[in-house]
Specification:
The chain has two domains: about 140 residues, Alpha-Beta Complex (Aspartate Aminotransferase, domain 1); about 240 residues, Aspartate Aminotransferase, domain 2 (3-Layer(aba) Sandwich), CATH 3.40.640.10. About 40% of the residues lie in helices and about 20% in strands. It is built from 14 helices and 16 strands. Strand 2 and strand 3 form a beta hairpin. The protein binds pyridoxal-5'-phosphate. Pyridoxal-5'-phosphate (PLP) binds next to helix 5.
Amino acid sequence: MTRFFEHIADTYARFPVVLVKGNGTRLMDETGREYLDFTSGIAVCNLGHCHPGLIEVAKRALEELWHVSNLYWTRPQAELASAICERSFGEKVFFCNSGAEAVEAAFKLMRRFGRETKGPGAVEVIALEGSFHGRTLGALSLTGQPKFQKDFRPMLPTVTFVPRNDIKALRLAIGKRTCGVILEPIQGEGGVFELEDEYLEAARRLCDENGLLLCFDEVQVGMGRTGHLFAHQGTPVVPDLMCLAKALGNGLPIGALVARERAMSYLPPGTHASTFGGNPVICQVAKRVVELVGDVRFLDEVREKGEVLKEGLWAIKGEYPGLVKEVRGRGLIQAVEFHSPIPGIGKRFLEKGVLVITPGDKLLRCLPPLIITREEIEEFLTCVREVLSAIGPA
Ligand SMILES: Cc1ncc(COP(=O)(O)O)c(C=O)c1O
């Protein structure tokens, strides 16, 4: 930790624990203490830590080919892209390394689409208040949370923000210069807020009527998190573009922009690139991830376990009405909102051997690995009860 403080940039507030090993739903620190992981590395290790099947693929891949650049064709890229497209609306995929990069690619594509179809000024994108799309300047410009933008202004001026689930506001925001709409089917970093089916349908209709591209950022809620391989598959709407990252590599860095062929044609050769995008080792692992997470029985289980978690959290809300304001979420992304911040709540869970995400000390965001068992969900719920009862009167 001393060396960490000396040489690591101070950009994160970290819990005081050094993690050294992972196995399934458990992590171990350097003193040998075990933790139940209810974060999945922020919705990344959906198949748990050090999944044996993925290790096998990774080891084999590491002995084959590490990197050749995108000047050449490699088999793993094609196979992963096929695996994604066979299971979605996608026809073409652009690979990159992170969620922000997938969003950047979508943003550039939407702008180029607008210029080509409507004229040079048609580069405006509508995004939602409370959204989160990443920390690079383009993705940050689409992020509807002033706290992330304020120290880095000016942002790109071509973004309009509208409140979520407000169809009229969306309709009024669309103009001659609009080229696309970007949204998360469930706002993850924004506090686990679901978009209503009716709103998504209206967004689809308005995009069609006005010749706009509809982009879903599924970086956090895609890859099985909601009990569907891709989150929009649990809604009545199919987007034109979909951003993926996080759990696609189950911990190895990869991002992807998925599109129909016509939409992707607006990024022709030379318009966009990423040196490491489509890395052959990571693509082989990600293909296995898509196959495992895309299994129908696996996804059924995720939805059922999501219900167990949700019901448990609702019961706790009933037991602690003075502390818990709301429970919301879908599948295995669930959140408990408190009436007011509970300082140090994350540390209380840590001390009990459970890792959780507690933004602003006001929300408990549950993102367990999708392989979590019902017994482990009960173990977690017991821990929530212990932490809340130690805090004070219900
Ligand atoms: C919906 C969404 N989009 C984009 C990002 C950015 O992803 P990354 O941190 O991989 O750049 C995140 C990260 O939390 C996210 O939740």
